[in-house]
Amino acid sequence: MKGVIFDLDGTIADSTETIYEIFQALFADFGFPTPSRRSIRKVEAFDRARIIWELLPPEKKGDKELKGRMDERCSVLAHEAFARIKPMKGAKELLRFLKRKKVKVAIATNRGNTAPELLRALGLAGYFDAMVTARHVKNPKPHPEPLLLALREIGVRGNDALFVGDNGVDLQAGRAAGIKTVLLTKRGSGIGKLRIRSLLGLKPLLGIGK
Q1: Which of 41, 42, 140, 153 could form an SS bridge with 47, CB 3.0 to 4.6 Å?
Q2: Strand partners, 108
Q3: What does each C-alpha distance from 71 to 29, 43, 59, 61 come to in angstroms?
């Protein structure tokens, strides 16, 4: 493999619990019923604007002014949450390994303008050769556009790259982009889906030695 593309939340950043907290606080701030963890989990892989739209009551989905205010508040809550987010176990060790092997590494995330700041807060920004966020594309994942742009940014062809995500949205995007995709997840087995339980489990799949 000449390149590896990573999702950010739930893959490089151990942020799942924090995401639940952010959107529950957001909806409480605006006087809406607190969304359940289950309802957030169903949409957490989408970009922020899509998550808000999905969780809003039907009669509020068309209110652009409300969605704009909620998006701004969500950005504030996300920044405040940085101190509570840690790197995923094994992330730094794996990234050091890839850097030593001169493998190009990129991020392709549906997170928006908070993504670069989160990576800096995690102490991982220096390990990535490129970053594609929701702000860089018209079509976030599950559309393949973020992955195709990441490939161009690192100068690697799809058949020489691997994409690592953690959910069905990532799997759809990887397949649509024609990139071999691995899911970091402990949920189920999934016939035909390549899964790892820890980031360090990726090493044997890379074919680049120890």
Answers
A1: 140
A2: 132
A3: 12, 15, 18, 13
Residue 62 shares a structural domain with residue 159: no
CA distances from 155 to 11, 81, 130, 163, 187 (A): 22, 33, 10, 15, 33
Query: What are the structure tokens assigned to 135, written together?
Result: 């702000």
Note the pTM of the prediction, 2 decimals: 0.91
191 pLDDT band, cuts 50/70/90, is very low
Distance CA 44, CA 109 (A): 12
Tokens of 72: 């701004």
Backbone phi, then psi, for 62, in 5-degree steps?
-90, 5
Domain termination residue (choose one: 40, 58, 83)? 83
The answer to whether 49 touches 205, Cβ cutoff 8 Å, is no
| Conformation bin of residue 209: beta by default, left when phi > 0, alpha when psi is -120 to 50 | left
Same domain, 79 and 106: no
Could you read off the pLDDT of 43-97 as tens digits, one per residue?
998 999 999 999 999 999 999 999 999 999 999 999 999 999 999 999 999 999 9
* CA–CA gap between residue 4 and residue 26 (Å, rounded): 34
What pLDDT sits at residue 208? 74
